[in-house]
Design brief:
Blueprint: E1 2-10, H1 16-26, E2 30-34, H2 56-68, E3 93-99, H3 107-110, E4 115-120, H4 123-131, H5 143-162, E5 166-170, H6 175-194
Parallel strand pairs: 1-3, 1-4, 2-3, 4-5
């Protein structure tokens, strides 16, 4: 049994969740873990974009548990929507997509990725998209300019300085274009696993 752990990170409202859900429908034996599920409910909105606002240890534990036994972790095992020759002989390969905004700034996670993607958006488009979303707690006036965008720039800068092997994706592209790009890339990773060019992870 082999596993492929895919990171799908990036800017708020960049399309991470939508892309992850579309990929899950197309890929065999695929499951999703969302970083949003590990928020600490007691913190105020001011701290929602920092690692301390998340139960990161629990998130890492959940990923490790999935890697040990993906077949019994709620993985969708039915045929993917777009079955093709590329997906043949993948019955014993399991794929986990982990999506969230602070995936690559936490060192214990960085040893788990087989592939890492990071969605980007320009300031105006990100602000426009966020303004159409309803959050609990709601964004306060000035929250985007004073906290959300500066934190994104900070973490993106840290990645560009310290991290390698991250595929940056332009979040202004159509969902279909982004899906095609990432899907094709993951298919290549599956081929490598199938051909034995990568070590067995679990």
């Amino acid at each position: 049994m082999k596993v492929l752990v895919i990171g799908l990170g990036g800017v708020t409202n960049g399309g991470k969740t939508t892309l992850a859900e579309k990929l899950k429908k197309m890929l065999p034996n695929c499951d999703i873990i969302s970083q949003d599920d590990f928020f600490k409910g007691c913190l105020t909105f001011c701290f929602h974009l920092v690692l301390d606002a998340l139960y990161m240890d629990e998130m890492v534990k959940s990923i490790h548990n999935w890697m040990k036994n993906p077949g019994s972790s709620g993985v969708v095992t039915e045929e993917p929507e777009n079955t093709c020759d590329n997906l043949k002989n993948t019955d014993h390969v399991y794929i986990l997509i982990v999506e969230g905004f602070l995936l690559y700034n936490y060192e214990p996670l960085n040893e788990l990725w087989n592939r890492r993607y990071f969605l980007t958006l320009p300031y105006e488009e990100c602000k426009r998209r966020r303004s159409t979303r309803v959050y609990q707690p709601a964004d306060t006036p000035g929250y985007f300019d004073g906290h959300v965008w500066p934190m994104y720039l900070k973490y993106k800068s840290e990645l560009e300085e310290n991290a390698s092997n991250i595929v940056y994706l332009d979040g202004t592209k159509s969902q279909e274009e982004l899906l095609s790009c990432v899907y094709s890339d993951i298919i290549q990773e599956l081929k490598k696993l199938r051909e034995g060019n990568q070590p067995v992870t679990a």
